Amino acid sequence: MGTLYIVGTPIGNLKDITLRALEVLKVCDIILAEDTRVTKKLLNHYEIKKSVWRYDEYAGEKVYKDIQNLLKEGKNIALVTDAGTPGIADPGWKMVKYIRENQKNISVIPIPGASSVVTLLSASGINGDTFTFIGYPPHKKGRNKFFDELKNIQITPIVFFESPYRVQKSFDDISRVFGLDTQIIVGKELTKVFEEAWSGTVEEAKEYFVGSKLKGEFVVVVNA
Questions:
Q1: Which residues lie across from 158 on neighbouring strands?
Q2: Helix, strand, or coil here: 48?
Q3: Does the bond joining 157 to the residue before it have cis omega, within 30 degrees of 0?
Q4: Is the dihedral of CA 96, 5, 56, 171 positive or negative?
Q5: N vs C: which end of the chain shows fewer Cβ within 10 Å?
Q6: pTM value?
């Protein structure tokens, strides 16, 4: 039987990959990637030549069965995502669930890597012993209810991901639920050239993150 490796990759800076992750990518037979173009940039940087298959949220039943059969044949497969760890705000969990339910004698081994959530919390000045991670808020349907229910969360701070297209809307939602003076930490383009870990009130964030400041991916910590 082969092994399914769940490999954490850099969240931006290509140097933020572990030696163990590189070893696995070098020796595995196939790499499953959310976006093959993104993963090939990483592989090319480290001169790794492997067969890269696309695996994303739209993968059909045939993809799952093909991977199961390859693992049964003894192939070792690495599952990666565009940034960070598969299964965290990412459809990688579906592959792991399928293999665990349909081929219980196949080993699933996690290879840990960088996390934008932990990265931002470490630079926030907020006690990170406990926190609640809520992934990406809904785009449209159920969004108001989603944010309204944050008021009931007992374990804080609250951490979530957001796209540049909706981060201002999230600031509005936070201010509506918790108030304009709520303290937040905003991470933008973490580990990249123009990274920023900004702190202030949500009202100040609404004024600060405009124009070019809205480019990139965001992580938000709400110190409610």
A1: 132, 222
A2: coil
A3: yes
A4: positive
A5: N
A6: 0.91
What pLDDT digit, counting tens, does each position of 97-109 carry? 999 999 989 999 9
DSSP state of 75: -
And the tokens for 123? Answer: 């630079």
In the chain, the amino acid numbered 41 is K
SS3 content of the chain, % helix, strand, coil (to 5): 35, 20, 40
Task: Give the CA angle between residues 33, 5, 219 to the nearest 5°.
Answer: 60
Strand partners, 161: 219
Q: How far is CA 197 from the centre of its chain?
A: 17
User: Phi and psi of 39, rounded to 5°?
Assistant: -65, -35
Number of domains in the chain: 2
CATH of the domain at 90: 3.40.1010.10
Domain boundaries, position 214: 116-222
Torsion, CA 127, CA 128, CA 130, CA 133, rounded to 10: 130
Q: How far is CA 64 from CA 69, 99, 108, in A?
A: 9, 8, 15
Given strand 30-33, what is the order of strands in its sheet? 51-54, 30-33, 77-79, 3-7, 107-111
Count of beta carbons in the 10 Å neighbourhood of residue 200: 13
- Of the three residues 111, 142, 164, the one that is the final residue of a domain is 111
Boundary-marking domain end, from 43, 76, 111:
111
